[in-house]
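sanity check this record:

:::
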Amino acid sequence: MRRALHFVFKVADRKATIDFYRNVLGMKILRHEEFEKGCEAACNGPYDGKWSKTMVGYGAEDDHFVVELTYNYGIKSYKLGNDFLNIGITSNSVIDNAKKVGYEAEEMSDGKTLLEAPGGYQFVVCAGSKDGDPVCTCSLAVSDLQKSIGKMLAQLF
């Protein structure tokens, strides 16, 4: 079965971001790689210098959705686009973790909780537990829904 494997976030504050993923979301560092020069396929964006990627998630990349944190040395901030909305997580522990470390969480009208990682990426947490991967959604914004569905279906099948 084909599935989404990971999502890439460019992060300006690697330490604070990894602390959030580990101590609030409860994810684990799966692997970390350092690179001396920019990626020819623009994996790290339009940057030529030293960079790293850290894969974080709730389990192995083979059967869990993971997040790739791309860090470009010397870049102090990024402007977020309008394509990514949030990643949804089903968990009973994430909200408790946020409270324990004093992280601000916003209660939404539907009973879910909104958390914002350093750098502005958002996570929507639904209380509960589920077998397997706690990541349940990755929400994106599109300007033409029918065209986007067609492209996604073409990639999947």
